[in-house]
Amino acid sequence: MFDPVPAARPTGGLAMRCSRALLSPWSRFSLLVVVLLAAASTMLLFEPQRLLASGWPPQLTGGAAAMLFGLAYGACTVAFVPRPLLNIAAGALFGTQAGLAAALAGTVLGAGVSFMLGRVLGQDALRPLLRGRWLKAADGVLSRHGFRSMLALRLFPGVPFAAANYCAATSRMGYPPFLLATGIGSIPNTAAYVIAGSEAASPTSPAFLAAMGFIVVSGLGGALVAWRKRHRLSGE
């Protein structure tokens, strides 16, 4: 007598599929690539190295200027600006003590932002690709001995800062040990570049010569250790 009421079709099917596609690992990884390319392009247009030539704006002085520089430093490291350039600028603009504090704060900030971006947007897409021997070994070491491994990576100047950030984000390393190891391990080389920047006007001063000597020796030592590790892995 009465026609059966047709069963209600599930609504939101298209919206559900779209949301799944947008939240898929490769969609998030694509977003990470876009964000990093945009940041790098912005830095190329902004040319932060102009700070070395023109100096810090005169209206910004004291602790507020150092704090602002630390924030800008963090943003620049996310955008792949080389840290030695930023460290030299910190020393030239603020001197040894304030420059070192600003540079270390910016280092930890930039590393934390990079780690968060890599962990949220890239980890799920990249972990299935860890099939090579070196990649598996690096992932295992960072996952099991996170603090110790990251501390060693930060102490060796030959390891690119951004690469270490995103490798750690791909692993199962925790956030606190990553930040702590970054802050402690970055002190020696950061201090050397900051001192070199602050004493650049006196290239014959003992402080400048000591800083440059440390930079050269640590760089050669890092290259030697990397060569021996690679040679050992190649022979296995």
Beta-strand segment tally: 0
Q: Helix-strand pattern, N to C?
A: HHHHHHHHHHH
Principal-axes shape call: globular
The helicity comes to over 70%
- Measured on Cα atoms, how large is the radius of gyration? 23 Å
Helix run count: 11
Largest sheet report = none
Class based on secondary structure composition and strand pairing = mainly alpha
Question: pLDDT under 50 segments (min length 5)?
Answer: none
End-to-end separation = 82 Å
SSE blueprint and pairings:
Blueprint: H1 13-22, H2 25-46, H3 50-54, H4 62-78, H5 83-126, H6 133-144, H7 146-155, H8 161-170, H9 175-185, H10 187-198, H11 206-235
Helix pairs in contact: 2-5, 4-5, 5-8, 5-9, 5-10, 6-7, 7-9, 10-11
